Amino acid sequence: MSIKLNSGYDMPLVGFGCWKVSNDTCAEQIYNAIKVGYRLFDGAMDYGNEKEVGQGLKKALDEGLVSREELFITSKLWNNYHDPKNVPIALEKVLKDLGLDYIDLYLIHFPIAFKFVPIEEKYPPGFYCGDGDKFIYEDVPLAETWKALEKLTKTGKVKSIGISNFNGGLVYDLLRGAEIKPAVLQIEHHPYLQQPNLVEYVQSEGIAITAYSSFGPLSFVELDHPKALETPKLFEHKSIQSIADAHKKTPAQVLLRWATQRNIAVIPKSNNPDRLHQNLVVNDFDLTKDQIDEISKLDIGLRFNNPWDWDKIPIFA
User: Could you tell me the residue range of the domain that residue 65 belongs to?
Assistant: First the structure.
């Protein structure tokens, strides 16, 4: 199953997320995911593993397991490259690391412009802005960064462009001056953080939504995120378990189907071959309205990925 993007391309409804995939195992995980049937791979400059993702892609392509046209590869522009003159530099680095001539989707990772850091100085720069652990910002309006992405689509090196971690006000403002409407908005989205108004507005504008961290706190436990450590795991929540039992599915499959049934794409990852397959096969059953309503009651507005925690950046304030 796929979503027809407003750019005219089809994006798979279920993909493989490359966030926190270890460099040591990344190439093999990508290769194995392709063997299982994954075609969408969601990566980013900031993940620091795009070379290894590219190695996994190359192995599968060389063996004829898949053609390039069957794959949907996403990357994200990191905060240090928002200045329009640096956007093409960032893309060339992405393409070189992935070993590809083009990517299918390029997202602005966060609506935040850090000071430019040359690739040869530190890559990926993460929170480094050229002076120890100090956050240094550039005065680059999002509209200017967006126009630079629009130009990339005319080169053939990027098929679709989009945004990530934008709130409704930023989306609304971006649309006022955009020549090309974002094809996708990627957001943190799980039963504890459902953002129904944002989802409704963005979809009404013909923009597809991709959810990350579909399993809620699980994505952040290994980062020792204090909120994640103290929040009940969704896999063990009695409502999720009850719905899973009713459909003879796993809690993970229920959480993913809760999103895809509402036409929201998901990008889970797993090192376990069985779970890798289970996460992909989530569209062969439907939740009832009562079950969807029951999950809706779990919303407590709990956001784990919040730039306010970095340096009091008020994206979601």
Answer: 2-304
